[in-house]
Amino acid sequence: MAEILEKRPLTPITRLYRVDAPLVAKSAQPGQFVIVRVRDGGERIPLTIADYDRDAGTLTIVVQEVGTTTRYLGQLDVGDDILDLVGPLGMPLEIPVKGHIVGIGGGFGAAALLCLMRELRQRGDTTTIINGAREKDLLILNDELAGVCDNLELCTDDGSAGFHGLVTERLAQLIDGDGPGRPDMVIAIGPMLMIRAVTETTRGKDIPTLVSLDPLMIDGTGMCGGCRVTVDNEVKFACVDGPFFDAHQVDFEEAVRRNKMYVRQEGESKNRTACRKLVVGQD
Fold it and tell me: Burial, 172: exposed, middle or buried (Cβ in 10 Å; 0-12, 13-18, 19+)?
């Protein structure tokens, strides 16, 4: 079990949780994730580690309530226990390139940049974060992200905050030398279509690009095979070989198809619980 020490709303459906998990925090590294189970008989869901404090023994995760299990999690409050929290899982993210590193976060995916960009800045890299969302009220953790990078760029589709346009449009301007300048490396975390668009923006520009394929994960330990992805013509598993991969080697046509495989089942589960109160521990 992991006790919830802090719960903070970030958007109407997005919550930040800081939990007591000393063993996980002791070993956690940027890019890794945990598996959470909220109730007996419930599904196991992978959640990216947003931050960790080894001295305090705490772990920070950000959850968007989009399905049944995340809605169960949303009912828990400070002092409640998450039934199971296992990790850290996945391969730690290694960034051999030094220089100007640009991290791009879409929606709640921006949270995963916290610990990563902090470490890159501490090692001496110039760091830029592009935090994007449809509108300003969906941008999360702006203050925290500004504190771990040299330059924070906000992007909104409707122009309500920061740059008026897509994260890829602002990235293209940086590549052309605008603002803090051309990136030496790009890291993208967020919805599948966004990271695919980032990949195409940097393709052919001699800019190494890494993307997180965590949207593909179901089981998180390699047992279910649901996160299979083809990278450089080889079959990989996002949960055990990733979640980060060389973006320009990923077969995104396949990845997008696989990301939609369980949409019907997820919708059916959500509909079954839409008309009644969810109670943790009950069906």
Answer: middle
DSSP 178: -
Output the CATH code of domain 100-259: 3.40.50.80
The listed CATH number (2.40.30.10, 1.10.3720.10, 1.10.645.10, 1.20.1200.10) that belongs to domain 2-89: 2.40.30.10
pTM above 0.85, yes or no: yes
- pLDDT tier for residue 282 given thresholds of 50, 70 and 90: very low
Percent of the chain with pLDDT over 90: 60
Q: Which whole number is the average pLDDT over 57-61? A: 95
Which has more pLDDT, 32 or 278? 32
Distance CA(143)–CA(147), nearest Å, equals 6
Distances (CA, A) of 98 to 102, 184, 185: 11, 7, 8
**278 vs 233: which has the higher pLDDT:** 233
Residue spans of alpha helices (H) in the chain? 22-27, 68-75, 113-122, 142-146, 167-175, 192-202, 252-259, 263-274
pLDDT score of 89: 92
- Which letter, b or e, does each residue of 245-267 get, where b requires 16 or more Cβ atoms within 10 Å of its Cβ? bebbebebeebeebbeeeeeeee
Tell me whether residue 77 is exposed, middle or buried, using C-beta atoms within 10 angstroms of its C-beta: 0 to 12, 13 to 18, 19 or more.
Answer: exposed
Q: Evaluate whether 69 touches 44 at the Cβ level (below 8 Å).
A: no
